[in-house]
Amino acid sequence: MAEKAAKLASFTWEGVDRQGRKVKGDSQAENPSRLRLTLRQQGIAAQKIRRKSSLSQLLEGKRSKKITPGDIAVFTRQLSTMLNSGVPLVQAFDIIGRGHENPSMRKLVMAIKDDVESGTALSEALGKHPLYFDELVCNLVNAGEQAGVLDTLLDKIATYKEKTESIKKKIRKALFYPTAVLVVAFAVTAILLIFVVPQFESLFRGFGADLPAFTRMVLNLSDFFRAWWWAIFGGLIGGVVLFLEAKKRSRRFAHFLDRVALRIPVVGSILRKAAIARFARTLSTMFAAGVPLVEALGSVAGATGNAVYGEAVRGMQDEVATGQQLQWSVEQTKLFPHMVVQMIAIGEEAGSLDAMLAKVADFYEEEVDNAIDSLSSLLEPLIMAVLGVLVGGLVIAMYLPIFKLGSVV
């Protein structure tokens, strides 16, 4: 067996499937003829087959990148579409896995395919990879398998993943832009203080007159930077690393940060709306799949993206488990607007809780979009003003003595 495996070679291929669509992928086989036969058994007519060189395999291994939540969302959508079109589950995994550009994702899909092919339930196969498929996804897939509506549930999971990832990307984009600009501003200021200002200092020594207070302050700041630049940069880098590690390892610190973040003007409002949108979208998806409310709330707690809301949802789970209505439990947290409470109340009374929560999610996702657009418009002139004050202040400080000298002459 090992001798046979040693003779396998890697190939890239292109062909046409039964529906006439062009497909391509990478496969291992003993020779091109055997690969052509294997593809024909899968309903693919191979048109081009090329053997991979050792160099290309090495480069592919170096290009291997990590699997992102976006990759998982696309995979779920592809799997849902194929199952809905009548493609058998194992064949769907084979087509998706072999056609994926990311080798890491291809390896993951083929590992799940092997488990399913050996008789393991899809929910269990996904549960073996908790980094990419959380408890919520596994519960939904399990519900779909039990009810015989796996394609429908995968479609709901794909929609859920796409919506939540869209919100996360927009929030990251809104926060990344000002952070990046401020980092660049600090770097430019440090370069000016360390390399440019000292050139002016040697020029000012020959003036034989007192320098303006603002210029002296900048020169002293330049001396401090040149003497302690290693401590300043080391402290900043160490502080960032320490902050990230503390957030990752200390639950109490992460909870404190999430609580503080909710109180930041403008940004706190966006984070609050995003948490409500994720809460409503996740609970709607799980409830529509037939997952009991108490069990659904357990999965929702970890999906809100904020420790404060997660803790509140866990409290709601305990109250609902004792027989309390969801509406009353949501109202008691004091974290959800009155409109959300009323929509949940109407949903409970009408027996359409999943539909009402979906409407709440749609509303708050749109609110997050609008708030982020407004924040971006507000930050652009503010950031330009900060840059102008930093760089312009340094320039003015350096030219003040020259202006003063000109007025004396």
UniProtKB/TrEMBL annotation:
Q: Which GO terms describe its biological process?
A: protein secretion by the type II secretion system
State the UniProt keywords alphabetically: Cell inner membrane, Cell membrane, Membrane, Transmembrane, Transmembrane helix, Transport
Q: How does it sit in the membrane?
A: Multi-pass membrane protein
Instruction: Tell me where on the tree of life, at the top rank, the source sits.
Output: Bacteria
Q: Which PROSITE patterns does this entry report, sorted A to Z?
A: T2SP_F
Q: Which residues cross the membrane?
A: 175-197, 227-244, 382-402
* Main subcellular localisation: membrane
**Where is this gene product found?**
Cell inner membrane
Q: Which residues form the signal peptide?
A: none
GO cellular component annotations, sorted alphabetically? Answer: plasma membrane
Gene3D superfamilies, alphabetized: Type II secretion system (T2SS), domain F
Q: What Pfam families does this protein map onto?
A: T2SSF (PF00482)
Type II secretion system protein GspF domain boundaries: 75-198, 279-401
Q: Coiled coil where?
A: none
Query: Record's family?
Result: Belongs to the GSP F family.
What is the official name of this protein in its record? Type II secretion system protein F
Q: Which organism is it from?
A: Sediminicurvatus halobius
